[in-house]
Structures are given as C-alpha cells and as structure tokens.
Amino acid sequence: MPGLNFLSGNETADMKQNLTIALSKGRILKDTLPLLEAADIIPAEDIFSSRKLIFDTNHDNIKLVVIRATDVPTYVEHGGADMGVAGKDVLLEYGAKGLYEPLDLDIARCRLMVAGMKDAGEVEGRMTVATKFVNITKEFFARQGRQVDIIKLYGAMELAPIMGLADRIVDIVDTGNTLRANGLVPMEDICYVSSRLVVGKAALKMKHRQIQPIIEQLAAAVDARKERSEQI
Ligand code: PRT
Ligand code: MG
C-alpha cells in the first residue's frame, strides 16, 4: 500500500492502537448504539441479548465494554477504557478530574431535583435528605449555606419521605410521573442532566489521532439527530 509510506512509523502504529469504549448499560444504552453506528462503530453481535461484558465491533482494534453507569468514569479515569458514555449526574457525583468531556450526546435527558411530600411544610431545624447522589446533594445545599443531614440510599428514593426516613429526596426527574405516583412534588431544581462522551487524559494524549475523528463523527450524529427531532 503506497499510501502508507506517507505515514511515519509512529503514526502507522498509532492508527492501529486498541481502543476501548465503556458504555453504560440500562436506559442510556439504547440511545447510545445508534449514535455509535452513525460514527461507524457497530457491535459484532446483539448487546441486549448477550451476557458478555466485552464486545468486538466492525473494527479489529475497537472494543466495547458494557458496565454499570456508575462504573464508567472509574474505568475511563484509570485507563481501563479509553473513552466512555455516562450521565452528567454520574459524572458530577464521581467528580473525576482525569476526564475530558468533549461532547454532550443529548440523550437520556432529565433533571436532578429536590423533592418532598406534596403536603410537607417548611422543615424546622436541620433537614434530612435521602439520595444516592451524596456529593451533589452536599454541594448543592452547602452553596446555599444550608446544613443538611444526608442519608445514602441505593434506589427507590421516593419511599424515604413516605416512610418518615427523610424530609426530602434528591433524585432524577424526567416526566415527574414517579414523584406524582408516590405523592411527592418537585421543589428545587439542581441541574440539567444528559449523557456525555468522556475521554481519559492518557487516552487523549496517546490515541488522539484515533479518538478525534470518532468525536467528530459522534458530534455530527448528535446534530443530525437533533435536526430530525426538530422536524417532527
Ligand atoms: O439501575 P442501576 O442502579 O443499575 O443504575 P442506574 O439507575 O444508574 O441506571 P439507569 O439505566 O436507571 O439510568 C442511567 C442514567 O440514565 C442516569 O444516570 C441518568 O443520567 C439517565 N436518566 C435519564 C435517568 C432517567 N432519565 C430517569 N428517569 N435515570 C433514572 N431515571 C429514573 C429516576 O431515578 C426515577 O426513578 O426514572 C424515575 C423518574 O422518571 P419520571 O419520568 O417518572 O420522572
Ligand atoms: Mg436505575
């Protein structure tokens, strides 16, 4: 292949480096795969019907790992994966310094909110807040100079005020149906959440030539998806 002669030895090696992308399983995954496909990264088998954790793709050197959303920043920060997809909620809670966030994928959109029982009045004295987002919650109230006691839960936060475990919860709200169904109402908005592409610092340095075109193709896929949804 005469074309390859234009590349230095280093660049040729660079193009062939293995690249691992960590995907959040669960609700983010089904919106992530079409974006990857638009960037010409296609899993070699159906991820949803497999029990595998690592998947080959249509590229010899690109692999996908499918893991819990909360583990994605850990893998990418420590180089277990070169890049990944995770919710902004998960990234804020993890607080990673070793991660670049080059692209908002505009999928799995929702909000982080403080919520409480519909008929709950003002809390007198110190407020108790149940959440799985302990760091985000701490920071949100600290910024306002409000002291709260935080109770860490791993799921079904809505139950905590009903059972008298907490005055408030901090949780993700999309349609608001889950809150309503449990007699809760949104009270304060913390932040907007969507899924982001993250890249590890080491990967960005060592595999820049491979990663940059993928970011660009994903960005184009995100724009195309936005345009389509605006036309509807
Ligand atoms: O379930 P598991 O503990 O394994 O992990 P996970 O809960 O982190 O995964 P998953 O797949 O449930 O969610 C992954 C990511 O999806 C989150 O980190 C968010 O970035 C994003 N996302 C978007 C959501 C929602 N929308 C959402 N609606 N995550 C959770 N919800 C839940 C929310 O917790 C609440 O119970 O849906 C309920 C609220 O929805 P509404 O429509 O009733 O308001
Ligand atoms: Mg869940």
In summary, what is this structure?
Helices cover 34% and strands 28% of the residues. It has 232 residues and is an alpha/beta fold.
Domain count, please report it.
2
Name the CATH superfamily assignment of the largest domain.
Answer: Periplasmic binding protein-like II
Largest sheet: spatial strand order: 2-3-1-4-11-5
Taken from the alpha-carbon principal axes, the silhouette is elongated
List the quaternary state of the chains: single chain
**Are there runs of 5+ residues with pLDDT below 50, and where?**
1-14
Element pattern in H and E: HEHEEHEHEEEHEHEHEEHH
Biggest pleated-sheet summary: 6 strands, mixed
Radius of gyration: 21 Å
Distinct small molecules: phosphoribosyl ATP, magnesium ion
Mean pLDDT: 92
* Portion of residues within helices: 25-40%
CATH domain class name of the largest domain? Alpha Beta
The CATH architecture assignment of the largest domain turns out to be 3-Layer(aba) Sandwich
Q: By helix and strand content, what is the structural category? A: alpha/beta
Number of DSSP E strands: 11
**Terminal-residue CA separation:** 46 Å
Q: Helical stretch count?
A: 9
User: Which topology of the largest domain does CATH recognise?
Assistant: D-Maltodextrin-Binding Protein, domain 2
Which strand-content bin applies to the residues?
25-35%
